[in-house]
Structure formats: C-alpha cells, structure tokens
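Hey,

The postdoc asked me to send both predictions to you directly instead of through the lab channel. I've kept everything plain text so nothing gets mangled by the mail client. Protein one:
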Amino acid sequence: MLYLLGVVVIALAILISVSLHEAGHMLTAKAFGMKVTRYFVGFGPTIFSFRRGETEYGLKAIPLGGFCKIVGMTPQDDDVEPGDEHRAMWRYPVWKRTIVMSAGSVVHFALAAIAIWLAAMFMGMPNKDIPNPLPAHVKVVDCILPDGAQRECAPGDPASPAKQAGLRDDDKILAVNGVPVADYAALTKTARELPPGQPATIRYERDGVTGELQVTPAAVQRKPLDDPDGPAKTVSVVGVVGPSLPPGVPANVTYGPVEAIPATAGYTKDLAVGTYEAMKRIPEKVPALWEAITGGERDKDTPISVVGASRLGGEALENGVWQMLVLLFISLNFFVGVFNLLPLLPLDGGHIAIAWFERARSWLYGLIGRRDPGRVDYMKLMPVTYVVILVGGAFTLLTATADIINPITLFSR
C-alpha cells in the first residue's frame, strides 16, 4: 500500500507541476493582453470543461501534462479571428513574448526553490561541513559474505575478522601495516591487497585515543574496484563497511527561515551543476539504457522517465524514506525547467530563441541600411521540429521501457 501511495504521490506531483507550468504561460499571456482560448489539464478526450470569459478550462482523460492555447503564437497560425489581430502573440514586443514563454520554466524553478527552502527548515539539507572525502570511519559487519551478495548473515557465513579482532563501529582507521589510510576508498584498496590469512596491524582512533590491533583478513571473491563489470577475483577483506560520518557530525542540518535562504541558494547552485552534468551525459547513456532493456544490468546513473520517478517514489515511501519524495520533486522540477529552455522547437526555449533571432536580425539589417526581412517562417523549420520530436519521443520511450522492464532500485526488495 505504501509503495502504491508513493507512486501516486510522485505521479500527481508531476501532473500538478506541469499544469502549473501551463498556468504560468496562461497568466502572463493574459496579463499582457494576449488572447488565451483554452487551458486543459491532460490530453485526449475531454472529461469536462467550462468557459470563463474567452477561455475554456477543462480536464482531459489522459493525465499526462496539459496545455494552453495562446492565439497567434507564430505569424503562420490561422487561429486569429477578425478583430483580434492586435492580440496575436507574435505581434507583441520580444521581451513580453520572452516572459510568457519562459514563465513555465520559471514556475518549475519557483516550485523547486520553495521546496528546497521548506526542506532546509523542516527536513534538513546536506551538511556542508562534512569532510570530503570522508575519513575512514567504519561500521563493523557481523559476517563475511564470500560472494558479495546483499543479504543477511546466515549460519555458516564466516565471522567478521574486524569484529573478532575488537574493532568497533565509528572507529577511524588510520593505517594498515604502517600504510597511512586517508579515507575509506584508500582503506578498501589497501585491505584488498593484504595477503589472505596473514595477520595485519591496524592502527585506529577511538574517542580521541589511538590504538592498534591484529586482524586476519578473509579471502573472498570481488569484482575489481576500477572495473565493476570485470570478472571477480580473490581479494582480502577485513569485515568493515563505510564510510561512516564522524561521531557527532549530522548528515543533515536544519535552518531557520532566514538562514534557509542562503542554504537554498547553495543547494540550487549544486543542483544546477548536477543537472548540467547529467544532461551532458545523456547521449553516452543511451547504449546503457538499451543494454538494460536487452537483459544487462541497469546502470543507476542512467536517465529515468516519469514511470521510473514514480517507482522510486513508491520504493522510498515503502522503505520509510519519505524525504526522497521531496528530493525527487525538487530534482524533476529543476530538470524540466532547464530542459524546456533548450533552444529547440517545439520547446519553449526554441520559441524564445527565434524571437530574439528576429530581433537581432532586424537590428542588424537596420544598422546596415537594409530592409527588415520580417518574421521567421516556422513552416520552413518544421522538418527540424519533427526530428526533435522524433528523437525526444524515442528517448522517452526508451527510458520508460527501461523503467518498466529493468527499473532502477535503491533498496533491496
């Protein structure tokens, strides 16, 4: 039941966000005097509708997004009635059209920012004072799983060498056989290179006091650290996991209403960088998505669709991590806001780019004394638009299929 509730919550949050996106277009267009004839939530057959003034509002049967109809978005539109020519969108100054077309993304950014601000006060934001990389504070496991499987300890599993030797949770490993250990990654690398079955000296720090003990590593099968897809080989392990936060250092920090503002700005900056990096990697992740569909392991770094986001929301709520629903809401809104501003038709950013291209071209022609060439002919751009729609549709289908056949899972189910 919790899983289904999480799925519904994320799906509904996405629907509401997209509906507000279209409301942003509609309200700014109306504020400037443009004529808006339709505003609908969803697509397909109409469930119900009503008219207020010159605009018809309604709900469609397929709850995937929404739309609003602004009269005369391009000079080629034939939806301008006699007497409304002056209200056609394309006749308005470029700055007004820019505001209207960017209003949808602004709504997404506003939703993300408000959610971040509220999260900073009530849920907490990642602690900026956590060292990066983390020192090798560890948790001691009860047993060794020879094959590396993710499961509970079972009778017959070898006991953890670290536990037998006396290591405790939150101990900070300083060195192994005299080799300094700066972080958990260095600890893992050093431990794997130890001779199996031969005692090793581990220097550690516990409650500010340094000590040493002898640990006899166990031999197990693990995949190489630098090649997760490579064949497994025999290595040594000592029976710890990490990295753990230093004792007394919280993972998240909550803020007051005023202090939450700079925290929101900082998180938004990190989100912008992460979104840029994620979008830059999309082309190289397409083969990984295809591999996931055809039987390969799903890369957790591959893009997800609305289906995948909804499933992650269900999984998070089922496992009691409701905070992930908030982070999903924030990330999705920010990503959609950025994506819609890409200078490609039929995205909002494509219309904005054309409007400013027309303005710059008119200015340049005036500067050199030539006649203004007028508006861009959108019909000549339709082949490019169709290519963008085809590629975008294919990518959406690919991610949705991967999310159905081989979804990303963050918890063992």
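Protein two:
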Amino acid sequence: MKRTILSLGGLLLGTVLTYAQANISPAKPQGKAIVITGATIHIGNGKVINNGYIAFDKGKITAIGEGSAPAINGADVIDAKGKQVYPGFICPVTTLGLVEIEEGARGTVDEAETGDLNPHVRSLIAYNTDSKVIPTVRSNGVLLAQPTPTSGLISGESSVVQLDAWNWEDAAYKKDIAIHLTWPSAGGGGRRGGGFRRGAIPTTGPQETPQERAQKALDAITNLFAQAKAYSEIAKPEVTNLRFAAMKGLFDGSKKLFVNADGAKEIVQAINFAKSFGISLVIVGGKQSYLVADALRENNVPVIIRETQTVPERDEDDVYLPYKLPHLLQDAGVLYGLTGIAFWRQRNLPFEAGQAVGYGLSKEQALSMITMNNAKILGIDKTTGTLETGKDANLFISGGDALDMITIDVQKAFIQGRDINLDNLHKQLYRKFAGKYGLEPKL
C-alpha cells in the first residue's frame, strides 16, 4: 500500500509561492482519496469526535470515526492533530455574487429587476463566479450560498451554489429552490421599519395611508397567487405564462416561499397565507418570531435570522435580544438558521453564529445553525450540512475555533472533495505591503 504523508504546511506551500497571481482558478476534481487524521471533528449535528479521522474520495465522504483511520490504498493523509474539522458553512439569502461594488458602480450590481411581481427572475444566471468577494468569504469557511434577488414585492427565485466554479452552470448545487416575497407592512418605509423594500408598490396618491398601501400590495399578491395556482392545475396550458410557470413549484412542493417579515403580526399573516395555498413557508428576518414561536412550530415554519450582531428593533426590547433570539427559537422547538446582511459581510457568518454562544446556545448548536439547520431549510441536507458517510465532502480544517474571529484559522478547505484555493485579494494585498515594510507575512 502506498501512503503519502503530507503536512498542512507542505500542502499550503504551493499556494504561498503563487500568491501573486491575480486570478484564483477553481480546483480540479478530486483525483485521489484523502484521509484527515488526528483532528477534533465537529459533525454539525451536535456531536464531536475527538482524535478523529475522516476520509473522502470522488467528492464523497467514505469513512468517519474515532481513533486510527482505515488503510486506504494510494490515499493522501493529512495530519491534523490539534486542529478542528468542520462542515462547510452555508449562507442563505445573500447577494453574494450578485453585487461587487455596492455604491457608485451600478454596472457591478445585478441583484434586482424593475417591477414589483417578478417570480420568474432567476438569480442563478446573474451569479458572478469571478467576483473578488467570493474568495474572501470562503476563506472563513463559507463554502455554499444562496444568491437571492431583492426589490419589489416578489423579487424572484433563488438557487444554492457552491463557491468554487468557472461559471454559474458549474456553481449550481441545487437549482431554483425558492421564490422570495416581502410581506406588505404598514410599519414604515425601510427594512428596519418592516415596510417595503426598493421597488415595492408605491403610494399612488397623497390621501393613501400606509394601511391602504399595504392592503393594495396584499391584494396584488393574493390575486397573483390565485391565478398561478389555477395555472398550475392545467396540464398543458395553451399559452405559456413565465410568471405562473415559475410559481408552479410552490404548489407541487418542489419550491419554498421565503417571506421577508420581522413583525409578529406579519409573520402570522404570512403563515395563514401560505396555509391557504398549501405552500411550504420560510420566514426570513423574524425579529419578533419568538413572540409567535408556537404558531411557527405548529405549522413547521422555519426562520432564517438575518444577523445577531445588531441592535434591537424597538426601544422597549431587551438590548441583548438579537443575541438571544437563536436560543429563544431553540427552546421553542422552531427550526432556525442564520444569514448575514449585504454580500461581503457574509465572511462574518461564523462570528454572527458565535455571538449567540454565551446567550443560551452551546457552541455545537451555534455551529448547527449555519450548517445542518441551514441545509435543512434549503432542502440540501441529504447531501451536505453534516459530516456523514455518503454526503458531499464539503469541509474545512481550522487551526482554532472557527466561530471565534480571533482564533479562526482556515488552513484547508474542500468542496465536493476538491482542494480549493484559499487565497484572496485581501491576503495578496497584506503580503504585498508586509513585504514593502520588511514584515514577515503570516498569511
């Protein structure tokens, strides 16, 4: 049996020597089996294996356990003693890959379409695999994401992508899984106030109240869904309607409806709306979801929390409520996940999860929030989200606690078994100017 013993330092040497390259190419398919030994392995479902091993070949996990690894002919063996192995983090509901420069460069922003009702708009085909932001995100262990369109009442449909690809076709991990809707609210004008997002149905006259405007929007949504449901029941429509065709998956269960809603009232309204059409619902935001946790649990409606590192919505709220919200939903038996805001800040996803540790969640529960839980909500838990035999080898090795911004040290990462390049523009600039001033670069 031929076994090649490799150290993490040796494996990283090639990357260090080529850091000056402007372009970071996607990795080639896994060519031989890899065995990681001696690590503390975090499964993602709450279990931890000390002094463990994990083996994967042809992109799939083939063995995992404690103690000595099985002999695998021709495998590369990575000694990860004293290091941590984690499932790849999953970031739902993000504009990663759709936005490159947020302000002042409209040509780099492709997150929104004109109009208010756009269920047929596919964010996947706008996903930019050459974004310089993506490598900075996966350098912190985020390996999969859900690029999501914004604006209007119904902004479009989203897919799950893996973050190491030549083009959007290669990146697609699970296509067209959800349609996104912002629930009409009379609570104000911005996301923080629970109102409409950019492009939503506007006020048509000076006498129109916020309540009338919200009702007008709700009527438009209800009418669209009623027509789409009727369309979905026609076996062979004589005329193709792209909007209705895109919504068909909502009624046959192949797609979920992701609803942006923060207020307790709006969340309950969304639950009742989804029930009336027989639709699977996911609440995004859910700042007051803890107030209606019973309704969420009884109707099997999960919540994707937008962020923990923020301030409370209302002056009367507990100042620590954003930190406590994951634990409140955990105790209430509600399935919950976590995302961040904007696009580049998704690199802070593990630290947003870590913020909830110390406010009720254990470290493994916080890890599950951005791995197993997010995978369940996105409908990809059969292939990823936890480190189990038969699942895709989406994982990474860290020199420290990956939920702690001080000790995280992602040294190796694999997507479907492919050894991905962890360099990025930020690291290149750091090394460039460290050299200028005679400093010893640490990256």
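Summary for protein two, as requested: The CA atoms of residues 202 and 213 lie 7 Å apart.

Thanks,
C.
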